[in-house]
């Protein structure tokens, strides 16, 4: 684009309210920029209709580069709704850039996922699951849908929940959650008859039963009691269960806040 044609506010900021805009800050003298350019062209083609690629020559538009703090090039930024949603600097492998963009772009099914979340909050878990299944049918790697479905299925089908959580592998935002789902899935499927004899065995079994019924607070209270008596029973199972419940519910959940300090004290 020439200076007579290009207006950053119009062609990037305003345009990004209609479609995400991928901006490549580059310069002719920059060899890495020349390497990256055809890669971005191919990726933009792969995501045609979902993203618009705009290239900004920092030699021609130094004021724009300064405005956005561009210090090294190539500098690639994704603008959504008038702001930078994500970015990277330097030359990355094509596959890595495509994966980055796929994660950064808003899903076509974001509204459906939001509706599922609202249904789940209202207690209508079956209708929520139906919507999520439809989303995953069309967008199998929708991270938010996978995480929510894993949450919804944990109690009714822990094996499926664990399988869904494995598809969150490599997603930093969901690393703790996915690990929690896998841990709780194992606990929910634990064969009671195989548990070793110990004075804490009955209390441990009761805690598992509380967990299976979704009574997280009672389960935590029971597991913490087991930790006080014999922390390493069932391969440190009570501690692992507590940590998993905290991560599954979230640090701000009232049940987590109620039991977290008591749990911490029980360890020492």
Automatic annotation (TrEMBL):
One of its GO terms (molecular function) is protein-disulfide reductase activity. GO terms for biological process: cell redox homeostasis; response to stress. The keyword Manganese does not apply. It holds the Pfam family Thioredoxin. InterPro entries: Thioredoxin-like_sf, Thioredoxin_CS, Thioredoxin_domain, TPR-like_helical_dom_sf. Residues 1-106 form the Thioredoxin domain. Keywords: Disulfide bond, Electron transport, Redox-active center, Transport. It comes from the Bacteria. The keyword Electron transport applies. GO terms for cellular component: cytosol. Belongs to the thioredoxin family. This is Tetratricopeptide repeat protein. It comes from Prosthecochloris aestuarii.
